[in-house]
Sequence to fold (321 residues):
Amino acid sequence: MSNLDTSPDVTLCHTEADDHAVTEVFEPRAVPLGGLRAVRVDRVMPQRGLPTVGAWCFLDSFGPHDTAMRVLPHPHTGLQTVTWPLAGEIRHRDSLGSDVLVRPGQLNLMTAGRGVAHSELSEPAGPLHGLQLWVALPAERADMAPEFEQHVSLPVFTAPGATGTVLLGTLGDTTSPATTHTPLVGADLTVTGSATLPLRPDHEHAVLVVSGTPTVAGVSLARNQLLYLGTGRTELRLSSTEAVRVLLLGGEPFPDELVMWWNFVGRSHDEIAAARADWEAGSARFGTVAGHNGDRIPAPDLPGIRLTPRRKTRESPFQTQ
Ligand code: MN
Fold:
């Protein structure tokens, strides 16, 4: 999926590691997708004051709705895209020659590295519901050659009261086979009653509510709210009177300041501007996505300011538990 926001914010991904457990609730922001009438997504990350959780730097929750998703070829750099359908099927084509359907329970993972292009179309038009995430690549991998992988069978994590899929990284003793470049976790979990999840205290974590109204670390949450949990936890307690579904995200606090603009993750204005210029010029850097007769999403104009990394501070102090 593309960031189709027609006037994307300049977002600095910077995380100053908190050395303690906290709880802070973040609300999603409704973003209309340009060119796709009646389709909107709930943008959960990045948030003002919360640009990253580990290397996770972008999270859209889309649907459920009955509108076809038609995202024409567009570029990415410096990140991995993680496509996780919850209902419906998405056809992915990219400039590496991939052409696959991804279904609920299956993971599409595209590593952009120095540059790749892809398209994503729901097929057939019907109920569509899913999550799209980006993982920032560390500096030493940001220029790597692009890769694509699909995982149709992922490991199942179980604990008393909880079961689910580990998409990326490791939860407890369960590790996904998907390729990662920094220590992290992403897991889609169903909790019935109450459950306790094992966490790494040196990682920061957050929980997105996919469905239901769970209580997580003592905080009552609703759908599409994100609870940031900080670092320093060895376990996380979740409970609900009904079965609930949550996405657990976590990872080693990301050390770099990043500039995110449109579909690019970089470390300087010049890097982002060069990527934009290369896409607009039809550079071989991004290749060609077959099957679209040259149709593609043009890059928006750069803002009239130099994209300068700057630190974001949180608007309110965390509540220490
Ligand atoms: Mn995309």
In short: Helices lie at 269-280.
